[in-house]
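We now fix the convention by which a protein and its fold are recorded. Here is one such record, which you should read through line by line:

>
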Amino acid sequence: MRWICLLALLFLSLPAHAGHSAPKVFLRVHIQTEGSGLPEAQAIRVPIPPNGEPIQIRALAEATERDLIGISQDPGGAVHLQFNHQGQVNISAATAQNEGRILIVMINGVVVYAPIIDEQISTGELVLPRPINPNVLLQLQETARKNVKEEKRT
């Protein structure tokens, strides 16, 4: 019994991060909605930069980190997000049907980009005009690599 207790104590004292991947990063692409006629669970209010004005967005994201297959940063600092077929179709349809509304890109629950939709995005690529935190960029790149590997397996 004493050995079991010692082994349990040793196991519990190991660092929690040993053998685990980096913390998960959350990426969400949403579309502004008026919210009229929608149940409360289907629309949420978020503050958008620069002044924190609240708008309503559809609770269901058009694309998430699960749809991400590539991310890069160009020399000017802009971040390019490439989405798989499903993400591309969803973003294309949403931007075609919601011209004049706001597209919301959130990373880990923070709005990082909120442009007004002025044309359909059919390429499967979103471009964030400003750099993001380097650690978050690395986490998103790792997520994209994992997604590509998963797609190859299926």
Q: What stands out?
A: The helical segments are 2-13, 85-97, 134-153.
